[in-house]
Amino acid sequence: MTVQAMKFASEFRDPAAARVLLAAIAAKADRIGATREKPVHIMEICGGHTHSIFRYGLDKLIHEGVEFIHGPGCPVCVLPMARVDECVEIAETPGVIFTTFGDAMRVPGHRKSLMQARSGGADIRMVYSPLDALELARRNPGREVVFFGLGFETTTPSTALSIQAAAREGLTNFSVFCNHITVPEPIKALLDDPDMMLDGFIGPGHVSMVIGIHPYDFIPRDYGKPLVVAGFEPTDLLQSVLMVLTQIAEGRAAVENQYARVVPEHGNPVSLAAIADVYERRPSFEWRGLGEIDASGLRIRAQYAAFDAEEKFGIGYAASSRNVPEIEGCACGAVMTGKMKPMQCPQFGRGCTPEMPLGALMVSSEGACAAYWQYSGARAAAE
Hints:
By secondary structure, the protein is of the alpha/beta class. The chain has a domain at 81-183 and 268-321: HypD, alpha/beta domain 2 (Rossmann fold). 38% of the residues lie in helices and 16% in strands. It is built from 15 helices and 13 strands. The chain has a five-stranded parallel beta sheet. Strands 4-3-5-6 form a four-stranded parallel beta sheet, sandwiched between helices. Helix 5 (114-119) links the parallel strand 3 and strand 4 (124-126). Helix 2 (47-55) packs parallel to helix 15 (368-382) and helix 7 crosses helix 12 (269-278).
């Protein structure tokens, strides 16, 4: 038998293949449903998966015995408001060029967003990579260039490599405001929440490209829940749901890798080495909607302190800067932890829209509220 590799994205979007998977999911869900009253709750951790689910209408096509729960897998969305305020504080310092990814520009802080700070005269520039910020530092030796280091393990290596490059070149006018966070720890926090009723997980594909699949081993080992690392095409997600349901139906729990064409079992050794060299764990870090989570954030090691914006600008991760209350009426925390659907928020489509967002979930390209709005929420809100 000759096996042909898939060559085009369209092969992962084949309607016939999707129908076969949907039928298999329905059969498994019926079998599981015969022994329980509620649907199987599967949390997709990654915001990219949430957007794929709504882009391709998988939430409407999937069997009623399966319900997607949208997790906190959007790094912009889980950033606490206090850290946005500190970004603005750095950006408004005279002589600073503050650089950031575009989806962080409009996230509201307690006082203002970076976009509003730029409108007020701060030199804030959107970049596509920390290497762009590094080049700005080379071209502007008389200015302090700060990169807003934000994201899960997916973007952490590029920031680490930029800090290593700055150290080699002696670019002392370059620094990083480090807000990199990690995925496994908030999953544990969710599983420890007695109000969360989760049956399994669709694991993040891009994060797992860096860290591999074994950091999730604690989920089946300690909690008896299956996790399947998934790709982002519709057949990827449907196959991953089927794999989760198969484990549940067979009474077992394991970490499985549906995205093996991209995700190596043990991760990317070059990226992992850069992360280990540049960063260390913070004792704890605040997540919007989840609160303080032990060892879930990264900070820059002392040997690279010259490139640490917290050190350079005297902005420490102090208790006084944490737990800034959410904007009144904003339900980002409940939505990010799967306790509420976006359209159940009283502000969705009313006080909170993409043009005038109250919370980060409506701003970020990976936010659940933005996904609902883009693919169906605007019509639903109007109705």
